[in-house]
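Fold this sequence, please.
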Amino acid sequence: MGGPAGGPVEGAAVGAAGTPVGGRLALLNGPNLNLLGTREPHLYGTTTLAEIEDSCRTEAAAFGLELVAFQSNHEGALIDTVHGLRHEAAGIVVNPGGYAHTSVALADALAACELPVVEVHLTNVYRREAFRHHSFVSAVAVAVICGCGPDGYTMAVAHLARLVGRRGRRGSPLPAEPIPAAPGTLHRAPGR
């Protein structure tokens, strides 16, 4: 997904005049998440990344949305993918892995794409080592979900679907306005 210079996401369609494709969400996973299911199962569980991607596609489909997924252990590949999604998705769910704590460049790319972003972590990062308590990505996210295991991903997809104004499983309209930011936090304009 995403060319080396941040080109289009493979197989993605762009609307007239390059407008964002409102029926597509993106799921990005950072370093080491390809090892889910076998990596430190006492922390991350036994659910594989493929299983998480499948459950997210199912959740997105319940809102009439398509979901494209991408994982990389390389910061530049993630950034190029974010650039490619700028006009090809309505929102991004991202588990930046360790890059949450180190990558200003990934946070800048997510901010520049001007899409709503929901950050996800499988574990409760605030119950772990102190260096995990800060995330550069959180400052550009409309929501952060941590400590819910694989369910956090489907929660993120459902939240993004609501933000882009999709109807839920019961067919009722869902609110599109984000919850106002707490004092002292970055506030994103509605619809971003």
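Strands lie at 24-29, 66-71, 91-95, 117-121, 143-146. The chain has a mean pLDDT of 79.
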